[in-house]
Write a structure and sequence with these properties.
Structural class: mainly alpha
CATH class of the largest domain: Mainly Alpha
Strand content: under 5%
Number of helices: 17
Number of domains: 3
Largest sheet: none
Order of helices and strands: HHHHHHHHHHHHHHHHH
Shape: elongated
Distance between the termini: 61 Å
Amino acid sequence: MPVDLFAQGQHPVRIRSVQHTDVQRQRSRWTTPRASPQARVTGGPYAGRAKLGSLECAVGALVKAGKNATPEMRTSLIERLRAFVREVPAKGPDEQAVARAALMGGLVASDAGQPAVVVEFLDKYETRFPQQKEWHPTAVQRRLAARVALGEFAEAEKDLDAFVASTSGSERRKTLDDVGRALQKQLDGDDEARRKAAVALARKVYAALVAEGGETSDRIALASLEVRAGNPADARKLYDEILATDPSSAEAMRGAARAAAATGDRAGALARWKQVVETSPTGGTGWYEGRLEQVKLMLAAGDKTQACEVIHLSAGKSTTTGGDQLDKQLRAMGAAECK
C-alpha cells in the first residue's frame, strides 16, 4: 500500500492529489520526521501547534517506512489525528493546525483504503475551515473519490460540481478520468436505484471530460452511458461524431449500430453492422458479431429469407475462439428459423 500522501495516482481508485503551492510547501514538513521544539509544550496558545508537530513527525515516519508501513501504524496515526481534530477547537490561530490535521487524516485514510474515514475527516471541510482555501480542492477531491467508493452518489455529485468549479488543467482531467473509471465498475449492480444513480453521475463526469475536448474513449464512454440512460438518439449523435473523425473505430461502429437500432432505424443499424463486417477479418469475433446482429434485425423485421441467406453464407468460417461461440449461436438460429 503506497504511503506517500501526495504522490500521483496513489488512491485506491487511482485518484490523484491536486497540486497546490501551499500544499507543496508543506510537503517536506508532513513527510520528514523531525524533532519539534514545541512538542514539549503542554498548554497555552502553542499547545495545539506542538501536538500537530508531533503528528507531522508520525506522518513522516509512516512515509519513511514505505512498503514496510503496517496497518497498525496507519490505524494508530488515524486515531491520533482523529483525537486532535476532535479535541482542538478549530478557531483563531488553531484553525490552520486543525485543518492540516484533518487533511492529513483524510489522506492517510485514503491511502489506507478507508473511504468512510476519509469522509469523516473531510466532510464539510470548506465550511469548517473557511480560511484554508488553498487546501479545499484537495479535500474535495479525496472526499469525492471516497463517496464514489461508498456509493454515496448524491453527495458525490455535489463534490463533483465543487471540484470542477475549483480546478482546471491536467489534474482536473486526470481526476475526472479516474472517477469515471471507478463509476464504470458500479454500473452493473443488482440495486436498480444505485445503478441508475451511478449512471447519472458517470454521465456527468464524462460530459465534463467531453466538454473539455475529451478523447475518443471519453466520447465512447459517454455514448454508452446515454444508451444505458435511455437516450439512444443522443448516443447515436456522439457515435456519428466519433466516426466523422475516426472512421475506423470499430467500437464506435458497433455503438452506432446499436444506437440506430434502439431509435428504430433498422436500415441505419444494418448499414453500420455492414461496416463492421466489411472492416473486420473474416471469421473473427467482430465479423461474427456483425453477422449475428444483422440476422437478428432481419428476423425481427420478418425478413427470414435474407436472414437465412446470411446464416448460410457465414456458418463455418470461424477463425477465433470468440468466433466459434458466435458461429454456434448463428447455426442455432439457422436451425430454428431456416427450415
